[in-house]
């Protein structure tokens, strides 16, 4: 089994790469999706979040408001690190379970937005960075996620610089073009991975 980590700054298109891999019937772990489970009120991580950040992070239904929490952590580095320290152990546990469940596969992928920031590159045989120009990423975040330009730039700035990610990567997929262009790149990449 070859473990391949996929990362990149927000808006780079790493989730689209994951979707294109799944369409090819390849297993992909979604760290962000797994993180969302931690926000459910009954999850142990959610209880810790409420303890640390207070009941002000709850919405009218008593669930954690991800938007409220995001507004807090993207303006306070210490609180961002605190949130990561609560969530990451659960996500890592999920990643290890994913590896166990797919141990018979030749290729397994995991989309980990903070792969380098949290030092999880050590769990992978190959680390691939999906990258695009910062201005394209900002535009995507405004158009696709309804962020303000300021919020988009704050999110990008809170992550490891894309140039540094590229320098640390084993492989890079550049995504400045269309989805069709990206799909073509993924097709070539998967073909090469299967030959190794």
List the helices and strands and how they pair.
Elements: E1 2-7, H1 14-23, E2 28-30, H2 31-38, H3 44-53, H4 66-73, H5 77-101, E3 107-111, E4 126-131, H6 134-145, H7 149-157, H8 162-168, E5 171-174, H9 179-195
Parallel strand pairs: 1-3, 1-4, 2-3, 4-5
Helix pairs in contact: 1-9, 2-5, 6-7
What does this structure look like?
This protein is of the alpha/beta class. The protein folds into 2 domains: 1-27 and 107-196, Rossmann fold (3-Layer(aba) Sandwich), CATH 3.40.50; 34-101, no CATH class. It is built from 9 helices and 5 strands; from the N terminus they run βαβααααββαααβα. It has helices spanning 14-23, 31-38, 44-53, 66-73, 77-101, 134-145, 149-157, 162-168, 179-195; strands at 2-7, 28-30, 107-111, 126-131, 171-174. The longest helix has 25 residues, at 77-101. The model has no long low-confidence stretch (mean pLDDT 93).
- Tell me the span between the first and last alpha carbons: 12 Å
- Largest β sheet strand count, sense and barrel closure: 5 strands, parallel
| Strand segment tally | 5
CATH homologous superfamily designation of the largest domain: P-loop containing nucleotide triphosphate hydrolases
Note the total helix count.
9
Structural class: alpha/beta
CATH T-level topology of the largest domain? Rossmann fold
């Amino acid at each position: 089994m070859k473990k391949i980590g996929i990362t990149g700054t927000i808006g780079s298109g790493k989730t689209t790469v994951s979707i294109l891999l799944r369409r090819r019937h390849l297993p992909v772990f979604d760290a962000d999706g797994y993180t969302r489970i931690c926000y459910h009120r009954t999850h142990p991580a959610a209880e810790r979040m409420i303890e640390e950040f207070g009941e002000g992070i709850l919405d009218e239904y008593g669930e954690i408001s991800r938007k409220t929490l995001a507004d807090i952590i993207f303006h306070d580095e210490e609180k961002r690190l605190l949130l990561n320290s609560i969530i990451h152990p659960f996500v890592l546990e999920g990643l290890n379970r994913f590896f166990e469940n797919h141990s018979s596969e030749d290729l397994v992928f995991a989309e980990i937005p903070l792969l380098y920031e949290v030092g999880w590159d050590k769990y992978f045989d190959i680390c691939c960075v999906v990258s695009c120009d910062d201005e394209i990423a900002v535009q995507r975040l405004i158009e696709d996620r309804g962020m303000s330009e300021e919020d988009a730039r704050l999110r990008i700035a809170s992550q490891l610089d894309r140039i540094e990610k590229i320098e640390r990567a084993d492989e890079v997929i550049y995504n400045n073009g269309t989805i069709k262009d990206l799909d073509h790149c993924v097709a070539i990449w998967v073909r090469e991975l299967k030959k190794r």
